[in-house]
């Protein structure tokens, strides 16, 4: 929200979103658009001083957000290109740092990260040692320390934008109480071609690691108009993954483990959402996910023109390619051996996630992030982590033990189902 408010003039979707929220706030509170703008600006005290300077116009009530942004020339129609509309018809900074959950991370110190071996302090040699017997607390109370590394795309990054930010009736000062935690702009664009850039590891100084290779969509998803031509081919997939594994073998400590995860069948997205209303359209039942996907495609900003498309043939072709790439991973895991890690393949557990969520009384569409209609929701991420780890426990019981660390976490997540 803060990013959109500050940079709304640079992004057509940002303009349409912000104007939509202002219009809906006026509708919900039976106020003028000027009063609605004041209300929205007061929710964001950080930028209150520039809020009115940013919106030096009057929104006419008979104009929808598309019309306002085009009239201000913030949205434009290039020659030979379609006119991008979200609505069907017109109405007649915080610094980088670490979060408390990552106390073993510190952006200011490159030697502090998960999986680093404990280093004894020259000045405090007995720090962390039980004075009664001289045994380190870590040795007494902790299982073997291992780093867990996720090499993947944004689907594994727990991407989330609160639905309250898209729902005028729920907007309040409290809605933005956690704003600092959402200022991080997710830039996870990992696919088989560039995952090497995402991992830093020291073979001599680090503990063995569990590496989860989970680029589950970006090898087939892209925003190109000729999307099929830009999908990764099976031959490219094999070459890219082999380069990654060779790199890992040269950087991971001996005794590490690598899990290759298959690609997801993204037809699930369209099937579950295209007829449902997006949070921005729930007040007036005027924006479906099908409209959102079409609008983003028109702006050339659709994160996956392949699966987020009304073209069933294209959706099926994309899933076929995803299966081909998954089979490449499966064959690599079956046939390749490495000195510093063992390796196995796991299908992305979409079916198991949906079945478990259904058994808890949930509906399948709730497994998709509602604000973008693309990423896994917080519920799906929590379920997926537990199911994924349970399969890993069966493969390496002698390494991982019997406890699943995600069992407790998942109950915490279900206590707050992200607005569903």
How would you describe this structure to a colleague?
It is built from 14 helices and 4 strands. With 420 residues, it is mainly α.
Short description:
It contains 14 helices and four strands.
The run of helices and strands is: HHHHHHEEHEHHHEHHHH
Uncertain runs with pLDDT below 50, 5 residues or more? 4-10, 91-103, 182-188, 416-420
Average pLDDT, all residues: 78
Number of helices: 14
Radius of gyration: 24 Å
What percent of residues adopt helix (DSSP H or I)? 25-40%
Molecular shape = globular
Structural class: mainly alpha
Total strands: 4
How is the biggest beta sheet arranged?
A: 4 strands, parallel
Largest beta sheet: strand ordering: 1-2-3-4
- Termini separation comes to 20 Å
Q: Which band does the percent of strand residues land in? A: 5-15%
Provide the fold topology.
Elements: H1 2-7, H2 12-28, H3 33-43, H4 48-54, H5 65-71, H6 137-141, E1 147-152, E2 209-214, H7 234-251, E3 256-261, H8 267-273, H9 289-298, H10 312-335, E4 341-346, H11 350-359, H12 378-395, H13 397-400, H14 406-414
Parallel strand pairs: 1-2, 2-3, 3-4
